[in-house]
Specification:
Blueprint (H helix, E strand, L loop, with lengths): L1 E5 L2 E5 L5 H7 L8 E4 L2 E3 L14 E5 L6
Parallel strand pairs: 1-5
Antiparallel strand pairs: 1-2, 3-4, 3-5
Length: 67
């Protein structure tokens, strides 16, 4: 297990997960979101090749309407 921060909350997850697997493991079902790993946005096409490492900071951002 590794320790990461997801939206400011400390979580323990299985080692070797990629971004796509992490989203599934976190049961994240909201549509239309962006993911940043250590403040760098990850393109959807890179979800399967971006591996989450111990100590990473993950931000899952959803758009907000308003004005």
């Amino acid at each position: 297990m590794i320790t990461i921060s997801v939206n400011g909350e400390i979580k323990e997850v299985k080692e070797g997960l990629n971004v796509k697997e992490l989203i599934v493991a976190l049961n994240y079902t909201t549509q239309g979101f962006a993911v940043a790993v250590n403040t760098t946005f990850v393109a959807i096409k890179s979800y399967e090749t971006t591996i989450i490492e111990n100590g990473d900071t993950i931000d899952i951002l959803t758009p907000v309407q308003g004005g």
